[in-house]
Write a structure and sequence with these properties.
alpha/beta; Rossmann fold; 2 domains; six-stranded parallel beta sheet; globular
């Protein structure tokens, strides 16, 4: 099959990471996948506008069986609908409802309009969350067009046997300190502020370092917040890390964190990082909201608003008073059920059935 990928979101967003995993597996199955490279993030979401003249010429560059759009935004959808006229089937991948991260304002209204209005005109709508599926049904998407495409893990990459933790400790400038690790895309969806405030007493401990792996538009905001809290010496920001190095950093950790605050957007998310942590055989401390509760048997979870228990769970893990069997079961559960290879083999069959 010939597939063209068009990104509605800017470079280095979580949605793009997901889509590139999908592309990788589709290529391994013998498909020809062409990507229009996403443009960089710009102020005030203006990348939506500036990407249109970059994407538009693609409508003249060959025929494709499928156009795969990550997010049904106008910059990507213009290409999709024009290629549909040429005979392509068009796919919208919706990994959350972005408008819900904006509590009010013009951006919320604009994003909501496109997320509500456009999906029903696609031939296939990929979701990974029942709440997203129900939302799409309520907004005119036929049930036969909805396909569950869950978040997965690249097991050839997230394999703890491949990484020497001491090499990555050296990159961080650390020796024997306990490491609490948080994979982060520091944008409007990040929960880092709540995490830092909830764990401030643990982070202050002399032999503890909190490592933020990733970057984003709110990086400076969080740096300033941590400085004001007097934690700057115990928090390390790696800034942008190539995907190939992410498992190495996870492998250095003693405790990994996932947290979803109790807001509407959190119920429409599915965590990729919790799957990656568990695949690496790590102790995960998380709250029990939404998708995270599906992993309650394999994590050290707590009630969303009980930040004291959050802190206690992290201390328990750092003091090695954890249940190794629970962690090993979590690793097996993820490796058995969330391999991108298995997920995309089924997706490949679905695409061939549509053709």
């Amino acid at each position: 099959m010939k597939i063209l990928t068009v990104y509605g979101t800017p470079d280095n967003s979580g949605n793009i990471i997901r889509t590139r995993y999908i592309n990788k597996e589709l290529i391994k199955l013998g498909n020809q996948v062409t990507e229009i490279p996403p443009i960089r993030r710009m102020p005030y979401q203006s990348n939506f506008i500036y990407s249109i003249p970059v994407y538009f010429p693609q409508i003249f560059k060959g025929l494709y069986d499928f156009i795969f759009t990550s997010k049904p935004y106008p910059n990507a959808s213009i290409v999709a609908f024009l290629k549909k006229i040429q005979g392509s089937k068009i796919i919208a991948d919706i990994d959350d409802l972005t408008f819900m991260y904006h509590e009010k304002g013009a951006m919320r209204l604009i994003l909501k309009f496109f997320e509500d209005f456009l999906p029903k005109y696609f031939d296939l709508v990929c979701i990974h969350n029942k709440n997203v599926a129900n939302y799409m049904l309520k907004h005119g998407v036929e049930s036969k067009k909805i396909y569950n495409l869950p978040n997965g893990v690249d097991l050839s990459l997230f394999n703890p046997k491949l990484y020497d933790k001491y090499i990555f400790r050296k990159k961080l400038g650390l020796k024997n300190e306990k490491i609490i690790l948080y994979l982060a895309n520091l944008d409007i969806s990040s929960e880092l502020e709540i995490i830092i405030k909830g764990l401030k007493n643990v982070i202050k401990l002399k032999q503890v370092r909190f490592v933020v792996v990733g970057s984003g538009v709110l990086k400076n905001y969080y740096r300033n917040l941590i400085s004001k809290m007097g934690l700057i010496n115990n928090v390390i920001f790696t800034d942008y890390v190539p995907l190939k190095d992410v498992p190495g950093y996870i492998n250095t950790s003693d405790c990994c964190i996932v947290y979803y605050s109790d807001r509407c957007a959190s119920y429409y998310r599915t965590s990729m990082k919790i799957r990656e942590y568990l695949a690496m055989g790590k102790a995960v401390v998380c709250n029990n909201l939404g998708d995270l509760n599906n992993f309650k048997d394999f994590t050290f979870n707590f009630q969303t608003k009980d930040l004291d228990q959050f802190e206690n769970n992290v201390l328990q893990v750092l003091n090695e008073k954890n249940e190794r069997l629970r962690i090993l079961k979590g690793q097996k559960y993820v490796r058995d059920n969330f391999s991108w290879e298995k997920i995309i083999k089924e997706f490949d069959k679905k695409l061939k059935s549509i053709i």
